[in-house]
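In response to reviewer comment 3 from the previous cycle, which asked for concrete evidence that the modeling workflow produces usable outputs, we include below a single protein chain processed end to end. The sequence was submitted unchanged, and the resulting structure tokens are shown without manual editing.
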Amino acid sequence: MADGIVKELPGPISPGTLARIGGALYLLIILGGAFGEAFIRGRLIVPDDARATAERILANEGLWRIGIASEIIMLVCTVALALILYVLLRPVSRDLALLAVLFNLTSIAIEATNELQLLLTLLPLTDAGLTGAFDRAQIDALSYLTATSYGYGFGVGLIFFGVECLILGVLISRSGYLPRAIGVLMLIAGACYLINMFAVILSPRLAAFLFPIGMLPALLGEGALCLWLLVKGVDESKWRARASAA
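The workflow returned the following structure tokens.
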């Protein structure tokens, strides 16, 4: 059984090397998400002002499109990371590791579909058929609606991602070859994502209060896992011993 698990690693890549590749992918995902949210949407979307938002997006159309492309690349990296985490955590529980992948892929599918919202934001501003069919206020409103609705779609995807974080937290805590503390942090991160996103659906005012509080431990948990995989990898001898026991 252990030989079979080890042989299923891609080529000659060791568990430690695979973990570092996963850490690098995780870092790209985090940086890509921060770039899109803080440096593109955060700068171009003006809260409660459809006209100003439309003007900024139209004036920075290239930047808006770069943001969409970078997030699609980020999702491709997320698929690869899902496979790596499955291989690394499979010796703890194959079923739970597979369940984490399924929740992750569901989140990715929702986020990929949600990228259409960002493309649709440009259509009322740039498509001649639409610009001629509506007046300026209607065009601005249509563009603003799709730009801001992206956040709700992203939130729905985070609900499934939050469940994945809970599962990863359990697997990491039980592994013996990754720090138990990181597993606990991932459990907290998953709980924070779920609380924040359900608050967005059920009570937006409460969500506005909870969001800054809940995102800090979530980012701490993900950041800790990312850096540990990138710098330390996994304890290969313990990983192989756990694989043999499986």
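DSSP finds ten helices and no strands in the chain. We consider this sufficient to address the reviewer's concern, and the full set will be provided in the supplementary archive.
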